[in-house]
Amino acid sequence: MSKQLRFSANVNTFNACADRYVLSGYGQRLTTEELITAATRVKGLTGLEVVGFWHVNDDNVLQVNRRIRDAGFQVTCVTPDIWASARWGKGSFASNDPQVRRAAVQEVKKSMEWARQMDCKVVDLWFGQDGYDYPLQADYLAAWDRLIEGTIECAEHLPEVNLVIEYKPKEPRTHCFIGTVGKTLLLLEKVNKANVGAMIDVGHSLMAYEVAAESAAMLQHFGNKLFYMHFNDNWRLWDDDMTVGMVHTVEMLELLYWLDRINYEGWYALDIFPYREDGVCAATESIRWIQGLHDLLDKIGRERIAEVIANGDAMGASALVREAFLG
Amino acid sequence: MSKQLRFSANVNTFNACADRYVLSGYGQRLTTEELITAATRVKGLTGLEVVGFWHVNDDNVLQVNRRIRDAGFQVTCVTPDIWASARWGKGSFASNDPQVRRAAVQEVKKSMEWARQMDCKVVDLWFGQDGYDYPLQADYLAAWDRLIEGTIECAEHLPEVNLVIEYKPKEPRTHCFIGTVGKTLLLLEKVNKANVGAMIDVGHSLMAYEVAAESAAMLQHFGNKLFYMHFNDNWRLWDDDMTVGMVHTVEMLELLYWLDRINYEGWYALDIFPYREDGVCAATESIRWIQGLHDLLDKIGRERIAEVIANGDAMGASALVREAFLG
Amino acid sequence: MSKQLRFSANVNTFNACADRYVLSGYGQRLTTEELITAATRVKGLTGLEVVGFWHVNDDNVLQVNRRIRDAGFQVTCVTPDIWASARWGKGSFASNDPQVRRAAVQEVKKSMEWARQMDCKVVDLWFGQDGYDYPLQADYLAAWDRLIEGTIECAEHLPEVNLVIEYKPKEPRTHCFIGTVGKTLLLLEKVNKANVGAMIDVGHSLMAYEVAAESAAMLQHFGNKLFYMHFNDNWRLWDDDMTVGMVHTVEMLELLYWLDRINYEGWYALDIFPYREDGVCAATESIRWIQGLHDLLDKIGRERIAEVIANGDAMGASALVREAFLG
Amino acid sequence: MSKQLRFSANVNTFNACADRYVLSGYGQRLTTEELITAATRVKGLTGLEVVGFWHVNDDNVLQVNRRIRDAGFQVTCVTPDIWASARWGKGSFASNDPQVRRAAVQEVKKSMEWARQMDCKVVDLWFGQDGYDYPLQADYLAAWDRLIEGTIECAEHLPEVNLVIEYKPKEPRTHCFIGTVGKTLLLLEKVNKANVGAMIDVGHSLMAYEVAAESAAMLQHFGNKLFYMHFNDNWRLWDDDMTVGMVHTVEMLELLYWLDRINYEGWYALDIFPYREDGVCAATESIRWIQGLHDLLDKIGRERIAEVIANGDAMGASALVREAFLG
Fold it and tell me: What is the spatial distance between Cα D131 and Cα D140, in angstroms, rounded to a whole number?
């Protein structure tokens, strides 16, 4: 019998998505209350992610949490906003400005506290603005030292809340310091805290020419460090944040296989930007793809998959997938 | 003696740049008046581009033009806004909705009229929203027919104003219909109007794995269709809209060489997004790189360049550039 | 009822594949006779491609043809070798050396004659060596003129044999002149001969960030110029020449849909390099994927697909594919 | 005064280069003796790399070494051949076949011994065949365990010889296990031997969307692990193995700056494939670019560079480089 997957989504999934051309967004802007209501229309969704200060703050955290619970969801992740205003434009934890670094660490600590108050185990550390745009612009070594130092400080702040490093090769900087699974594992080694692990955002992994299944396996193999997953799809060269299934179908199947094989126990969270699609429909479609592909693994038989892998048998793998998809 | 290059820039160069994370922009928002004033601080800049409805409309067009002239600039290009609001989210000229197509054509015609009123010869047709995001989403043939038809209609509206097709492989759609120099030349053949040509945005060309010099040469060779140029730089995989010079230095030199060789007579316009840089400084730096590289061509000697090209002599070309840069 | 697809493969599919590291090949080198015998083991295969001089020459052409016929195959394409020896290293039709250009044109004419003798309608013009590696190396305009001129000369040589332009963005040169579907259509316009069309190699199209379905539709829309198809798959950034199905599954489905919709009547030929796989198994697996995906189109219903396309309904398309694959 | 850089090159630089199309090579095949003679014609070259079994074996190692010394060179690196024959096609250290793994380890040990006999400190571990081509083909965890285990065994064999991990994202496999600087640092942590470090091949780093300067800085920062450097250039998407300077000019300048700043003391070795160029000319040109860019650092002033970096001042960096190149 198939394992029951637990699905989450960022509440912004249901909001108007904007890009650098359509700054006002492609759809309608909703309140947090309306976003939660929209989420209830997604079958199978039982978790929600929120962003610090956007959706929760010291004043409303308990109330928002109650509202989310009442609507039938758990809060699965709080993401501190250390990347969405001009203040962080030249970096957060790795900024050259010690005051900005301090402020960024404070933001994260606040989000950790809000997470604890909402009974949420995961705070997402995405260093989106920590990087560089031009050659001869960055002090790579100072940056790494600062990222390690800030992460340690946050980790020690609340050991019962997990920090998950979300790596991404680029955007909004042309190069981000923590851009690949390998760099993430290096950071985790240097930070060396039980409550600091990683998430894989599938699209970020694709951008880095990684196979997400491999990255997931590595994170578990070297310290059981895969704490969380963000699902989406793209055309491999940019973080298109598409719904799951239509571009990298077989790689998604492989990822789901490996998540079970390495005993991943975390949430299956969506991180999609349905710019021109209805958010409820996009989330529903993504969940159906993931659950459907996951169910297919049992139909194929995990031992048969294990066997082709053990033999490095590419054509055997092809036949298994083909028969499963096409009969 | 070096040819005097004529430099232009979009007035937005001097405004706060935003991306999908920092929607409010990395800097300060200025009025059109303030943008023009900022432009006067860029040495060597004698042209400005404006966006239809953002900066000019039926009511203010003469007044804005006078202000621009008084500040010492010509208007070199008007870009109709057929891509910056939700209305155009699923396409403009190629939209499935005939009313949207009609509205988009109207926008372009209005910009053509404003251009004429401002004594500006160039209107930029960038079909940014005309494309698709997912497999099995687009009717490719209907899209092309509509793009051709709409462009012809606009071309006939005011034959004395030139329309320039600005191709780009992706963004904001994951795939844009008019994405490469080859597709652009095809469109030009099908439209077949004297007042419809193309521009090359160097960054878009890099994204398409083109060498911009080759694309420029082709546009001139097949009908003298290179009407305009947008300069910027990027890391080849995305439209980073960086200042000129620091990434693709030699390719820029080659482009400047070919622009002269093919008798390009148009403007050297900047299309940069200096998110975290001062706009005046970024524009100044770009102009100095372009002019400096252009001056270098005379120092190297155009006959010597022509000779290595005629021989396909890569190492000869390398030596010429090396000696010019490094002495 | 499903249309019966006609499958072909290059006879080299069954030979040892080599790369620049393993020059002696990953498997066993076979004679042409042995290659044909191997091909008979691939169920559903009824066509074979051969390479001029490698497999056929003036002396053996009739004998090879008889052998191929006797084994149950048609010759579907002859590819002139204008790219596999040092002689062509700096170009064939576009070489700076008029003698090399002449020799290349002669090679193509010979292959056209062999094709006619074998009752084969298609000769593949792949200008792999016609391009450049470095900035400031190529005379882009001379190259285009030469490519057009040489192609016209060949086309006129035997009007009853079709020449198909096979575009590819790079390899073996870092840049090839005829690299995209747009440039191919431009070349076809300039050549303007009834017996000159194009093929799409799916992998080349993926490398160019094209969606092959779109490229196919364009080639038919602008002159019924899609004469042939090469099937394979890759990871989008290089011509990995993999078997069909495991990476770009849905894009392949879309391509098969559009090939029917545009009335493509040509062969479904494999162009794969099964370096580490058994060639018979790799070809069989590819054919099963293509036929299986094609059959699925009927199961889904082509009217339902047409409807989601007409509406630009990405989530509708997603649901159709998902239900077809996952039930 | 400028630091004197020590330049090396693989002896194959001077041999005919082959690719998968031109298997016999674009030039003339030379003997080892002739290759060494060719190398003497490259001004500034004082080191040579050899490949185990290709150029040295148990019988000829002392004689080849003497010949190389007599010609005025040091042997700077021995590369074991664990990737250039069908035997290694499905992997070397990470092969599923224990006998292949054993054989690969033996090859490396032999190369280490030859290195010692030739007074060479560096043996290059490039796991080119250790990877996978298709989804659902690889056992990622077994692979990593085997790579770690084999590397440890080799490291212990001769502690006075340094092993340098040469990472590369792909080719000849579509995915290689040790593909990025981050994964390399992880491997080094797990191997944890004083005589195991890394090299950066600039082109491999570019393919991985790394900035080589950053990768170099990281390798030194986390354990002084940058033991060797391979120089070349490419168009960022493939290992084109071009001469230095013409594509990523400023990134090369930045790399040279950081190599000094992190006290890199190793060789500046060329790893180029001058398919269509004369090898002596290609090597000479590369050395002149590297030395010329390095000299420029002093002209610019390293303190001025350090200052723009400390400030993250991209436009300041741009101005420094521009003035240095263009006056």
Answer: 9
Q: Count of H helices and E strands in chain D? A: 11, 10
pLDDT digits (tens, 9 = 90+) for D74-95: 999 999 999 999 999 999 999 9
Query: Residue D10: beta bridge partners?
Result: D49
Q: Which of A210, A298, A318 to mutate to test the interface with C (most CBs of C within 10 A)?
A: A318
Using a CB-CB distance cutoff of 8 angstroms, which residues of chain A are in contact with residue C250? 245-247, 249
The encoded tokens of residue A206 equal: 């694709």
Q: How far is C276 from chain A (nearest CA, A)?
A: 9
Q: Is D73 left (phi over 0), alpha (psi -120 to 50) or beta?
A: beta
Cis bond upstream, residue A172 (ω within 30):
yes
Residues B47, B74 contacting (CB under 8 angstroms): yes
B163: distance to nearest CA of chain D, Å?
A: 33
Is residue B70 within 8 A of residue B37, CB to CB? The reply is: no
d(CA A183, nearest CA chain D) in Å: 4
Is residue B88 less than 8 Å (CB to CB) from chain C? no
D236: left (phi over 0), alpha (psi -120 to 50) or beta: left
Residue D7's nearest CA partner among D306, D325, D244, D327 is: D244
Instruction: Say if B181 is an interface residue toward chain C (CB within 8 Å).
Output: yes
B chain contacts of residue C209, beta-carbon cutoff 8 Å = 169-170, 175, 179, 208-209
Pairing of the two strands C74-79 and C45-51: parallel
Cβ distance of D135 and A250 shorter than 8 Å = yes
Structure tokens belonging to residue C52: 């001029």
pLDDT at A2: 60
Whether the full predicted model's pTM is greater than 0.90, yes or no, is yes
Q: Is the pLDDT of residue B1 over 80?
A: no
Distance to chain C for A249, nearest Cα, Å: 7
Bridge partners, B196 (sequence order): B163
Q: Which are the contacts of D257, defined by CB distance < 8 A and separation ≥ 6?
A: A136, D213, D297, D302, D305
| B86·A26 Cβ contact <8 A | yes
Exposed, middle or buried by CB within 10 Å (0-12, 13-18, 19+), for D160?
Answer: exposed
Say if the Cβ atoms of D137 and A184 lie within 8 Å: no
C303 Cα to chain D: minimum distance (Å): 32
Most A CBs within 10 Å, among B276, B277, B281, to test the A interface: B276
CA distance B163 to B151: 8
Measured CA to CA, the distance from residue C140 to residue B257 in angstroms comes to 13
Quick: pLDDT tens for C111-158. 999 999 999 999 999 999 999 999 999 999 999 999 999 999 999 999
Asked whether A133 and B276 are in contact (CB, 8 A), the reply is yes
pLDDT confidence bin for D2, thresholds 50/70/90: low
Selecting from A144, A312, A321 the residue whose C-beta is nearest the C-beta of D221 gives A144
| Distance, CA of A55 to CA of B186 (rounded, Å) | 49
Q: Tell me what ipTM this predicted complex has.
A: 0.97
Task: Kindly report the backbone phi and psi dihedral angles of residue D107, in degrees, each rounded to the nearest multiple of 5, phi listed first.
Answer: -60, -45
The CA distance from A258 to A266, in Å, is 13
pLDDT of residue B4: 83
Backbone phi, psi, residue B174, to 5°: -70, -20
Residue D160 has pLDDT above 60, yes or no: yes
Instruction: Please write the tens of the pLDDT for every residue from C271-307.
Output: 999 999 999 999 999 999 999 999 999 999 999 999 9
Q: Rounded distance, CA A311 to CA A319, Å?
A: 14
Going from the C-alpha of B289 to that of each of B124, B243, B284, the distances in angstroms are 25, 9, 9
Cβ distance of D250 and B247 shorter than 8 Å = yes
Q: Do A250 and C249 touch (CB under 8 A)?
A: yes
Instruction: Please confirm whether the linkage preceding B172 is cis (ω < 30° from 0).
Output: yes
**Straight-line distance from the first to the last Cα atom of chain C, in angstroms, rounded to the nearest whole number:** 21
